[in-house]
Design goal:
- The protein is of the alpha/beta class.
- The chain has a single domain (4-247), classed as Alpha-Beta Barrel (TIM Barrel), CATH 3.20.20.
- It is built from 12 helices and 8 strands.
- It has helices at 16-28, 46-53, 80-85, 96-101, 106-118, 131-135, 139-150, 156-159, 180-198, 200-205, 219-223, 240-247; strands at residues 4-9, 35-40, 59-63, 90-93, 122-127, 163-166, 207-211, 230-233.
- An 8-stranded parallel barrel has the order 1-2-3-4-5-6-7-8, surrounded by 5 helices.
- The chain binds 2-phosphoglycolic acid.
- The site of 2-phosphoglycolic acid (PGA) has 13 residues, from strand 8.
- The site of 2-phosphoglycolic acid has 13 residues, from strand 8.
């Protein structure tokens, strides 16, 4: 049975005090230990959030990005080793905001995935098509290419550690969610591509999250899709009640 996961990507939001308050509220309202909750605050808050969640059951920590090198003269950057040493177990790689605003391409992201795994971090690898791609009906091709160039150079044992988040760019922060048909269709496609590359056993264990305007109102039907194993939540993860209600959306 695949794990159920709800990950909150706080992006560039919350002061340290507000972030810690949010964590407190989430803990207070959290009663569903069958779901793994992953909190992804800003780098600078990782250690404090990790410390707060250390003794809480069912919570883990993610960074939102990492540099592709082990260490070195890269002023202002943060390494996978630093992230792990701050108490995180996961790192989000290839979020569309990194791809769009910071020019991160699949080749670079493959390096980031490698360095994350080298430092025992589990990559949450994001992929997804733009509105133009979907309108032009090339969304499957686009995602196939992101998979191939970003992940399919991994050995089977490394690949099986990775979590994939399908986030159609047109759904992120827009209030427009993929329909269950669209989400399930793409998740099924991703799982069948993983099957073609790595075989049935690995593909059936691969964790696939949906992201893009997922909220307390639509999580239930999205999470009910056969190939959707949870969500990567942006805006709706910034309010404890909403985040917890998403966690409770699993049937
Ligand atoms: P959203 O963001 O839930 O605000 O659409 C999702 C994401 O970017 O991970």
């Amino acid at each position: 049975m695949r794990k159920k996961i709800v990950a909150g990507n706080w992006k560039m939001n919350k002061s340290l005090a507000d972030g810690l308050l949010l964590v407190d509220e989430i803990i207070r309202g959290s009663h569903n230990n069958s779901v793994l909750k992953i909190i992804a605050p800003a780098f600078i808050h990782l250690a404090a959030v990790a410390e707060k969640l250390k003794k809480e059951e069912g919570f883990e920590i993610a960074a939102q990005n990492c540099h592709q090198s082990q260490n070195g003269a890269f002023t202002g950057e943060v390494s996978a080793e630093m992230i792990a040493s701050a108490g995180a177990q996961y790192v989000i790689i290839g979020h569309s905001e990194r791809r769009i605003y910071f020019g991160e391409n699949n080749g670079l992201l493959a390096q980031k995935v490698n360095i994350a795994l080298t430092n025992n971090l589990i990559p949450i690898f994001c992929l997804g098509e733009s509105r133009e791609d979907r309108n032009a009906n090339v969304h499957l091709e686009k995602v196939k290419q992101q998979l191939k160039e970003g992940l399919f150079n991994l050995s089977p044992s490394d690949f099986s550690k990775v979590i994939i988040a399908y986030e159609p760019v047109w759904a992120i922060g827009t209030g427009v969610t993929a329909t269950t048909h669209q989400a399930q269709g793409m998740h099924h496609f991703i799982r069948s591509e993983v099957n073609r590359k790595y075989g049935k056993d690995i593909s059936e264990e691969t964790l696939l999250l949906y992201g893009g305007s997922c909220n307390a109102d639509n999580a239930k039907e999205l999470f009910a899709c056969l190939d959707v194993d949870g969500g990567l939540i942006g805006g709706a993860s910034l309010k404890a009640a909403e985040f917890n209600s998403i966690v409770n959306s699993f049937g």
